[in-house]
Amino acid sequence: MNNINDYAESLFQLCSENGAGPERDELDFEFLGNKTGEPYLIQTNVYKNGTGGRKMRHMLWFDPTEDYHTYSIHEGRIRMISC
């Protein structure tokens, strides 16, 4: 992580059956800690056959500590939109 104030709290991980193996498939969603009062971030990463490198950070538009929230993944077709 680039910022010394960040820490990760795992929201959830979804792994293939060989999740501990070198050829694992995995989806990661992690809350990054907020010690500075800045907007909260969720960091995501995708591993396919053990290769990651798809790390992204998403700024939340709400304070996730204010209330209980339900998060979900909807499985379906991926659509690419070009602008």
From TrEMBL:
BP-aspect Gene Ontology terms: carbohydrate metabolic process
Pfam family, one: Glyco_hydro_16
Residues in GH16 domain copies: 12-73
Key word Hydrolase present: yes
Keywords associated with the record: Glycosidase, Hydrolase
InterPro entries, per database record: Beta-glucanase-like (IPR000757), Beta-glucanase/XTH (IPR044791), ConA-like_dom_sf (IPR013320), GH16_AS (IPR008263)
An annotated Gene Ontology molecular function: hydrolase activity, hydrolyzing O-glycosyl compounds
PANTHER family: XYLOGLUCAN ENDOTRANSGLUCOSYLASE/HYDROLASE PROTEIN 8-RELATED (PTHR31062)
Protein name: GH16 domain-containing protein
Organism this protein belongs to: Glycine max (Soybean)
